Amino acid sequence: MFTLAIVGRPNVGKSTLFNRLIGKRIALVDDTPGVTRDRREGDARLADLSFRIIDTAGLEEPGDGDLQRRMREQTDRAVEQADLCLLLIDARAGLTPLDTHFARLLRKGETPVLLAANKCEGGAGQQGLIDAYALGLGEPIALSAEHGQGLGELYDALAEFQEARNAAAVDEGPGEPVPVAIEGDDNEDTPDRPLKIAIVGRPNAGKSTLINQLIGEERLLAGPEAGLTRDSIAVEWEWSGRPVRLFDTAGMRKRARVSGKLEKLAVADAKRAMGFAESVILLIDATAPFEKQDLHIADMIAREGRAMVIAVNKWDLIDYPQEWLKALRNQLDEALPQIRGVPLITLSALSGKGVEKLLPAVAKMNAVWNKRIGTAILNEWLSEMTERHPPPLSQGRRIKLRYMTQVSTRPPTFAVFSPKGQELPGAYARYLINGLRADFDLPGVPIRLRMRRRSNPYVDE
């Protein structure tokens, strides 16, 4: 399987083509130039051809020390990583000096380059398509990423590259394997499913810096500017022999402060990534901890039913850490009793201090999130709980809790069967949930309790 990097100046349709080739709308697309900042990877398929694809930030000529320079470095890494580059230009806008400049740079590199002219639907892009020959990259492929036109010509060019690559591998002689793309081959030696972790928080909490520190490379764009991340980027990694998929997300501000279509799309994408994940790391800033928005995000994670770990970043800036940590724990337990016992990990994403404690805490919470309790044990426990503190009266008669079972995990979900189960007060339900958390060692995960009207389902009425 080969890797294709889509490059070009801003707003030529790279993310639209990326979404088209992977068959999902996961990259943010907007008319605003420069939406994509980090490189995003995915598995693409075009007819019978399977390959890896990288969406990149728009090529610009930046000054030293600014955001554009760091975006350009991310794109340069994608070009170095790729086996083939696809330079995309906007046929309707025509050839620009930036197109010419970057075509010259790509020709000097070692990575082969294909040229495609996007937005060729109708006749408006014909002149730009003709002008593209001047770039010296051969015959341009006429595309319309938005409408799916020209994909047959793109397939022919990619298939020719794949055949030439396979032939070159054969010519190397015996003992050299021919690269063959096998669906799902990467997972054959690893029976465990990947641990899916989303990192969420307010803008400028250090989410991208934390991921870079974890994986040991500058994979994501990071810096002092708030709101750098827009797309939710999935990063494949391995920790202690276990595959991990890390989701970097856009910072989530208060709803009233979210302005503009692009920021709304970024926040919606962050919430979608949270739904894909199994565990969520809520990253907060130690210098401004547990603001109302932090608590709102934590409550959102709990309602989503995800295993959660709270990481307190920039801990190296705190003068009295022990007193501060105790105050944070008290504030969290008071504000969010439904996730009492959630781990608090203090760290510095920039220096790496304390980061080694994060993944073990996530793995432990994931095990709690998947925990299952036997039915016989639960019913013995329910009998003890109701004897210790009987359910209240309803219309002058005691509510009888007849039977209890765990109906699912991820998060732990329990059903209690009772003829008047729907009349059970919320306070008594919280009493049962707190008992489950304490007696069965279920700290920090959401626990769901469902009341069912009928009696024991395993006994014929």
Quick rundown:
By secondary structure, the chain is an alpha/beta fold. The protein has helices spanning 14-22, 67-81, 97-108, 126-131, 151-171, 207-215, 261-276, 292-304, 321-335, 358-369, 375-388, 426-439; strands spanning 3-7, 40-46, 49-55, 84-90, 113-118, 141-142, 195-201, 233-239, 242-248, 279-285, 307-313, 344-346, 393-394, 397-398, 403-408, 413-417, 448-452. It has three domains: 3-185, Rossmann fold (3-Layer(aba) Sandwich); 191-369, Rossmann fold; 375-452, 2-Layer Sandwich (GMP Synthetase, Chain A, domain 3).
How would you describe what is shown here?
- The protein has helices at residues 14-22, 67-81, 97-108, 126-131, 151-171, 207-215, 261-276, 292-304, 321-335, 358-369, 375-388, 426-439, and strands spanning 3-7, 40-46, 49-55, 84-90, 113-118, 141-142, 195-201, 233-239, 242-248, 279-285, 307-313, 344-346, 393-394, 397-398, 403-408, 413-417, 448-452.
- It is an alpha/beta fold and 461 residues long.
- The protein folds into three domains: 3-185, 3-Layer(aba) Sandwich (Rossmann fold); 191-369, Rossmann fold (3-Layer(aba) Sandwich), CATH 3.40.50.300; 375-452, 2-Layer Sandwich (GMP Synthetase, Chain A, domain 3), CATH 3.30.300.20.
- A six-stranded mixed beta sheet has the order 2-3-1-4-5-6. The chain has a six-stranded mixed beta sheet with strand order 8-9-7-10-11-12, sandwiched between helices.
- α3 (97-108) links the parallel β4 and β5.
- Residues 173-191 have low confidence and may be disordered.
